[in-house]
Amino acid sequence: MHFDGSRFYNASGRTGQPFKKLPKVFTAPRARWPRSVPVRPQRPPALDAACDVAATFIGHSTFLIQSAEGTILTDPVFSRRAGPLGIIGPRRVREPGVRFEDLPRITVVLLSHNHYDHCDLRTLKRLAERFNPLVVTPLGNGDLVRSAGLTRVEELDWWQASRKSEFPVTLAPAQHFSARTPFDRNRALWGSFVFELGGRRLFFAGDTGYNTHFGSIRARLGRMDLSLLPIGAYEPRWFMQDIHMNPAEALQAHLDLDSRTSLAMHFGTFQLTPEGIDEPVRALKTAMAERNVPEAAFRVLSPGESWKAPRSSTAVGATNGAR
Q: What letter does residue 302 receive in the DSSP assignment?
């Protein structure tokens, strides 16, 4: 069980630091990020005889995933700020790698939890008006999602499979927490997603600290062909360790999942924590070299870049020069 009748909690018992310690984080020395980093938005790739699944990095934790079975957005955030009303909170440094106007028809949104940098009501409202997609989300988030005008919402518990999606989707555990205000902590659940497209098994980690749940997901749901894993917003460790992985832990999650390929996310878009804008990518490359993990196994895409799965093989690769 991970619900006490009032609040949800992590299976590990690690709940993160209380809100009262946030000022200590905000007053710590912070690396200076550039005010903006140029991004050339790309149009989503076309699926063809050579490719039946494509994942395009839009920014932060937002990916566009295209397939014949459906077109997915993960934790969609297109707003300029990650915060209440779109006018306060961390400012976007990199613009979305795909313009909202260039999105293909979105059939499913996978929404991992209710934090502002993952659950953006302004973006959800735009999606409702244009596509009205099915939103699959953990327990307790339905009312918030519906407040954006979305009418097709399915709430799941950990290990529960969707009954409404046209392709297999299962909500899996994550180690995190939820809150929109200082007064509603853990009233809604958080999670990750395992889903199947084009005969491949994909994993979207949402937001999470490192723990044994990655191994449990592998054991229960199988090997991942592609995993979307967070690598940023991890300092200071005394505060973030329970809720955000650092790059070395993200690499271990990749190994625990036995993932054929992983793509990095949750870095370089909003300055949420003190580390430098490029530090997560450098630290990931260092960890991979130390563990003798080939560069192709865990890729870092720039906004607008796409990963494509060849139709004729289970091997995967990236397009447009993934770093």
A: P
